[in-house]
Amino acid sequence: ALGLVSITFLPQLEWSPTTTRSILIKNSDVYPKWNTKKEFLQALILPWSLGKREIQKLETEKFYPFGISVLFLAIFGLKNLKRKQKLIIVTIVSICLLIAMNTVSPIEPLLLEMNWYKLFRVSTRVLIIPLIISFILAGHGLSQFGLTARLALGILKVAINPLRNFLYPINSPCGKLCL
């Protein structure tokens, strides 16, 4: 079995010092580079407050909008959980946010000493965890309101339409497709 694997494994061992992964460990560079904590929070919670031009210039690694209405419903859903569940969720989300903050994180020097963080390359990838948690909590919050799925989708459509028109006007190519 070792002979069969060695055909592909030995060349990889020889080439490993020249790969980008080894370069990342020597010269750590993790993206995105945040300028301020305000920019980080604005990109997550209220990206449209940056303005139409700025939101379209926003790097893809920086665009993970949670949305104010989802956060409101998630907070409402979190309120009705047991204390132990709240503590676990808040801890997980806090750790993920500290990692995603990258250059403005108070623990950035500590993170840059760890190889797993350097090899991660894009720190905002961990935001998928708080996003999923917020969607689950928002669903729990909706159920606390007693809203049906059809009514909730109607509310979302009414809330999203003005934002879509703001970002992609009718005369733009995407605006025509989104109608």
Question: How would you describe this structure to a colleague?
Answer:
The protein is 67% helix and 0% strand. The chain has helices at 2-15, 20-26, 37-45, 52-57, 68-79, 83-100, 108-112, 115-120, 128-145, 149-167, 173-178. Residues 174-179 have low confidence and may be disordered. It contains eleven helices and no strands. The protein starts with a helix and ends with a helix. With 179 residues, the protein is mainly α.
Could you give a quick summary of the protein structure above?
The chain is mostly helical.
Contiguous runs where pLDDT drops below 50 for at least 5 residues: 174-179
**In sequence order, what are the helices and strands, one letter per element?**
HHHHHHHHHHH
**Chain-averaged pLDDT:** 80
**Main beta-sheet annotation:** none
Structural class by secondary-structure content: mainly alpha
- Helical fraction: 55-70%
Query: Into which percentage range does the β-strand content fall?
Result: under 5%
Given the C-alpha coordinates, what overall shape results?
A: globular
Question: Which key terms come to mind for this protein?
Answer:
mainly alpha; 0% strand; 179 residues; globular; disordered C terminus; 67% helix
